[in-house]
Amino acid sequence: MDLVPVLSRWAHIASMAFLTGGALFAHLAYLPALDKLPEAEQTKLGDRVADSLRSWIFIAVALLILSGLYNFLNKPMYPPGYHAWFGVKMLAALHIVAVSILLGKTGVPHAKRKRWVAGISLSAILVIGLSAVLRAI
Ligand code: HEM
């Protein structure tokens, strides 16, 4: 068994699960729970969570891009239409990566965090769907 492709696929699935699962959890459970707190508490707790997550976000983004590039450059052949689907995936993936890095910042108002997280939750569902298409074509 060639270990590198297996490690790359593992790194890709683990890092994307962390970023997309984290966004969906924040969108569906964590941020709605904060709605009930006074505004000052919302930002304070949001900042504490951002402080704990920041380095993990950078690790996940680095692993995701490195493993994604490896997956792409080591693909034996590109079926017709592959690059078009891959291009759309990259646009949504860029959105997820950029906003995930922004979510590691402190001082972001709760309402803005909610909007950002809602946006990347949608992109996450789209990217995973596109990735399934990329594997199937
Ligand atoms: C948040 C962003 C991303 C998500 C959620 C995501 C998700 C996925 C998933 C679920 C797969 C299928 C895994 C499998 O069954 O092996 C996959 C495969 C792949 N991903 Fe990503 N990915 C993301 C970003 C990227 C990036 C940035 C790149 C390139 C730089 C990339 C390149 C690839 C490639 C080449 C494959 C293999 C597809 C194939 O079989 O042809 N991905 N990705």
How far apart lie the N and C ends? Answer: 24 Å
Strand percentage lies at under 5%
Overall, the morphology is: elongated
Note the run of SSEs as H and E: HHHH
Number of domains: 1
Radius of gyration: 17 Å
Counting DSSP H or I runs of 4 or more residues, the number of helices is 4
Largest sheet: none
Explain what the structure shows.
This protein is mainly α and 137 residues long. The mean pLDDT is 96. It has one domain. 85% of the residues lie in helices and 0% in strands. It has four helices and no strands. Bound molecules: protoporphyrin IX containing FE. The site of protoporphyrin IX containing FE has 21 residues, from helix 1, helix 2, helix 3 and helix 4. Protoporphyrin IX containing FE binds next to helix 1, helix 2, helix 3 and helix 4.
Summarize the entry for a quick read.
The chain is mostly helical and 137 residues long. The protein has helices at 3-34, 39-73, 82-103, 110-136.
What tags apply to this protein structure?
single chain; 137 residues; mainly alpha; binds protoporphyrin IX containing FE
